[in-house]
Amino acid sequence: MEDLDDFLEFMDMAEVAHTKIPKRYIRDHSNPFEFLYEEAFKKRFKFSKEAIMYYILPIIEGNLAKDSNRGLPVPPVLQLLMALRFYATGNYQAVTGDLRGFTQPTVCRCIKAVSIAFAEKLHEYVQFPKTLEDQRSNIRTFYEIAEFPNVAACIDGTLIKIANPDKEIGEIFRSRKGSFSLNILAAAGPRGEILYIDVRHPGSTHDSTCFDRSALKLFFMENRIKDINIKQKHFKEK
């Protein structure tokens, strides 16, 4: 009874002083959307919470939920977060540190599933504009950025590090920087969107060779990018 009396006295004092007892919120450490603030979340996963939940996840959620009735499935959103964290760091320990309760084999399987899901959707989202108007729109947008006419896309190569794939052919994948890698050729549009990507070449391949062997060069040689030579007067009219 003494404890109860003390508690009631404390409540009376708090009411007289017009003070409020602060609420305590228990954050779920297994849920990065709840536990991490927006800035820390974006730093780890390279995308905002909104972009992941409402734009990226719906694209592959159906693929990741195919086997959801077996065992104790990992929710698609957590599978996606595992993959994004791994893409950002290349480190399984960083993934398991941010998403607690998952073993390394589970993380590996989820990353593989997400990667396959993205690969299956590649041609739906990565492609050059097919209509003449869309092609002209990209050229006009590039011109508005830097006043450089008749630019359909910006291309470049980047080296993606990999483990030594094989002792006999491993040196083919060693880049000029000394690491085993793939030389990735990509073309980007004026809004930062990927229009073309080629991941076939080992790290020792020169960028110009990647382009010479690419379907992208063939598109231009066969004039599939139609009416590309828009004169500057068209930009001024806009």
UniProtKB/TrEMBL annotation:
Q: Which GO terms describe its molecular function?
A: metal ion binding
Q: Which domain of life is it from?
A: Eukaryota
Q: Which UniProt keywords apply?
A: Metal-binding
DDE Tnp4 domain segment(s)? 155-218
Q: Name one matching Pfam family.
A: DDE_Tnp_4
The coenzyme or cofactor needed here is: a divalent metal cation
Please state what the protein is called: Nuclease HARBI1
Name of the gene this protein is made from:
LOC112456141
